[in-house]
Amino acid sequence: MSSKINHDHHHQRINGQTSPPPCPHLAEFHARNGSKPFRVLQDCLRVKPPGGRAAIRRDPSEVPRCGACGQSSRPRLYACVACATIYCHASPGPSHAAAHATSMPPGHEIAVDVDRAELFCCACRDQVYDRDFDAAVVLSQTATLKSATIQSSTPENLRKRRRVDYRHWSPDLRERTLMGSGSSPLDWSMDPPWGLRGLNNLGNTCFMNSVLQALLHTPPLRNYFLSDRHNRYYCQQKNGVTSNNNNNLNGSGRRNAGGVDSKNARLCLACDMDAMFSAVFSGDRAPYSPSKFLYSWWQHAANLASYEQQDAHEFFISMLDGIHEKVEKDKHKHPNQGHGECCIAHRVFSGILRSDVMCMTCGFTSTTYDPCVDISLDLEPHQGSSAKTVSAKAHHSFNGEADPINTSQACGISTLMGCLDRFTRPERLGSDQKFFCQQCQVRQESLKQMSIRKLPLVSCFHIKRFEHSSIRKMSRKIDRNLQFPFALDLSPYLSSSILRSRFGNRVFPFDGEDSDASNEMSSEFELFAVITHTGKLDAGHYVTYLRLSDRWYKCDDAWVTQVNENIVRAAQGYMIFYVQKMLYYKASGKQVNARYNDSKGTKGTLNQFCTGQVT
Amino acid sequence: MRNSVNRPPTPDAVEIQQKRPTLEEIINIKLIESGEKERLMELLRERLTECGWKDDMKSLCRALIQKKGRNNVTVDDLVHVITPEGRASIPDSIKAELLQRIRTFLLQAAV
């Protein structure tokens, strides 16, 4: 039986799992053998084929055999770390390894599996873990160059952020008077709920309306604008957008003191968003015309300015970019887009993707981190299956969301998690896409794998339904239905999980020290908006479904109606929005705007606008 | 490695030489020395993952851990429980494929 684990040990989490405390024999072994007791083992690590499993061999051509019975064909062979003798182990059958541990003086209990490079305690008859040893194994499998660090924008960029306990805040008397004189309270029990307002179509602008509806109800974004974090009057005043300023310029004509073109100084997509939020949450139910916003966006994205139907996803990206552009860049020295320190758009939507490319000849792995505001997913290639079986099995999948992916794939239904599986699957880069390997110094065939390094507050999944084939010179739309869950756990797609499946159960953190705390506690997401597209590629219509207080509303331009959730499940998702279920405070040293201090002196920052559970 | 003074006495080595190696042993060594064993292992892993055998074993392990409690299960317990079930549930096609590979190897190695 396993040794009774000492529960006083600090249970730290590495790679999303609790790192088990050492058994007494391992602890004694450490005490007896100093700081690097497994260093000798590291010299015996052999990895082949490149990137494959790590084995322990004294010399590469060694055939390990049991020192007691001479057998080499036993399934489990262990090398004693103290005396390097190899013994076989079978349980409950004869175990020469266990016999060795008991027959020798204390110190020979720890052994290593010669074929799996995993530590084992022969006395406890159970696997044990050591961080330094696992570090050596992982490093030998990745075959990184010892001299240079390859990773670009390494995790060292991450500032260590402590998690801060939520402190309840309520306004004092002075603040209450201020609020009372300048605002009116929202009645959240109203039916239909606040913030539901149709958007007039201004000429094929359903692509814009659908995205705006989703953003108007993105909880962190909504909270940001409704709590006056971007005050449009203050912002315009700061940018010198008054007629007085223009007259006071010294000869340079159109440029004001801020060095910004006066025409562009009026242009601030965030201000237009602020105006829209105020209008939509005002309680007025008449449909709103976002014409000012459209005009501003046209000025920002001149190439897309027309009355033609545009792509909603393209608009989404362009809009986030527009909000980002207007941020004053001198305030933050190196705005790190991936961590959302630059603007509210990135704070809400930006995550970091990790890409590993492994050379198939030598095993050298190149890792890069890239920020992303959404994840574009391919639909699975068409699976042939009779219509009858599809409908029969579909019924089962609906009722039990915990069905394994295999079943749904087998009967030809595409699911969002299936798409995410494909996204994070190792992909062979073929002979026409050879990657330059720094170790081999030539282009080699490689294996590429994506994973999510840092989760954003809001995950937007863009389903690639529009196929543009340059070969056949045609584009088409993929109409296949995609099943998406209402609650989504993204932890299997995190870098720590993906790497664990590559390297096995190692207690060496794959991803740098910092990632785990922020990621694994917040990998649960809730669906809140779905943008759907119906019709053909060039003649179609966008509609948004919003989930408010667990009811679903269909926003079709100016018409907003309540619908049953089954309508949403059957709809053709094009952009699917999930928000983190639990939001956490992070301690931040930076102060964004002194105006937002409360009287007690706690600084309000971009990071601290989220509170507790998202409704 | 150090601590050679702690090694068991050499009579073990003499004992091994007195036993005649079995056919299984000889084949095993030939497979390892030529590197064929590694290739076969990789092939076997791939096949067993493809057909869902690995996932089935994983579920078995999970069930056992849930039943006995996370802190009361050792690796040996798991191996002991899933070995008979695992051996019995390997698809015949995989057995046939591997046997064929080994047969081919032996024919070519005997020359």
TrEMBL record, chain A:
PROSITE patterns: USP_1, USP_2, USP_3, ZF_UBP, ZINC_FINGER_C2H2_1
Cellular component aspect of the GO annotation: nucleus; SAGA-type complex
E.C. no: 3.4.19.12
First-tier enzyme category under EC: hydrolase
GO molecular function annotations of the record: cysteine-type deubiquitinase activity; zinc ion binding
Reactions listed under catalytic activity: Thiol-dependent hydrolysis of ester, thioester, amide, peptide and isopeptide bonds formed by the C-terminal Gly of ubiquitin (a 76-residue protein attached to proteins as an intracellular targeting signal)
Coiled coil (UniProt feature): none
Keywords: Hydrolase, Metal-binding, Nucleus, Protease, Thiol protease, Transcription, Transcription regulation, Ubl conjugation pathway, Zinc, Zinc-finger
A GO biological-process term: protein deubiquitination
Domain UBP-type positions: 21-153
Subcellular location(s) of the protein: Nucleus
UniProt entry tagged with the keyword Nucleus: yes
Ranges of residues in domain USP: 197-581
SUPFAM superfamilies: Cysteine proteinases, RING/U-box
Start and end residues of each stretch annotated as Disordered: 1-25
Family per similarity comment: Belongs to the peptidase C19 family. UBP8 subfamily.
Function according to Swiss-Prot or TrEMBL: Recognizes and hydrolyzes the peptide bond at the C-terminal Gly of ubiquitin. Involved in the processing of poly-ubiquitin precursors as well as that of ubiquitinated proteins.
Protein name as it appears in the record: Ubiquitin carboxyl-terminal hydrolase
Lineage: Eukaryota, Viridiplantae, Streptophyta, Embryophyta, Tracheophyta
TrEMBL record, chain B:
Pfam families per the UniProt record, alphabetical: EnY2
InterPro entries in the record: TF_ENY2, TF_EnY2_sf
GO BP: any one term: chromatin organization
GO molecular function, one term: transcription coactivator activity
Record bears the keyword Nucleus: yes
Signal peptide residues on this chain, from the entry's feature table: none
Predominant location: nucleus
Transmembrane regions: none
Keyword list, A-Z: Activator, Chromatin regulator, mRNA transport, Nucleus, Protein transport, Transcription, Transcription regulation, Translocation, Transport
Location of this chain's protein in the cell: Nucleus, Nucleoplasm
Record bears the keyword Transcription regulation: yes
Gene3D superfamilies associated with the record: 1.10.246.140
Assembly, per entry: Component of the nuclear pore complex (NPC)-associated TREX-2 complex (transcription and export complex 2). Component of the SAGA transcription coactivator-HAT complex. Within the SAGA complex, participates to a subcomplex of SAGA called the DUB module (deubiquitination module).
PANTHER family: ENHANCER OF YELLOW 2 TRANSCRIPTION FACTOR (PTHR12514)
Recorded family membership: Belongs to the ENY2 family.
Free-text function comment from the UniProt entry: Involved in mRNA export coupled transcription activation by association with both the TREX-2 and the SAGA complexes. The transcription regulatory histone acetylation (HAT) complex SAGA is a multiprotein complex that activates transcription by remodeling chromatin and mediating histone acetylation and deubiquitination. Within the SAGA complex, participates to a subcomplex that specifically deubiquitinates histones. The SAGA complex is recruited to specific gene promoters by activators, where it is required for transcription.
Record HAMAP family: ENY2_Sus1
Name of the protein in its database record: Transcription and mRNA export factor ENY2
Species, as recorded: Rhizophora mucronata
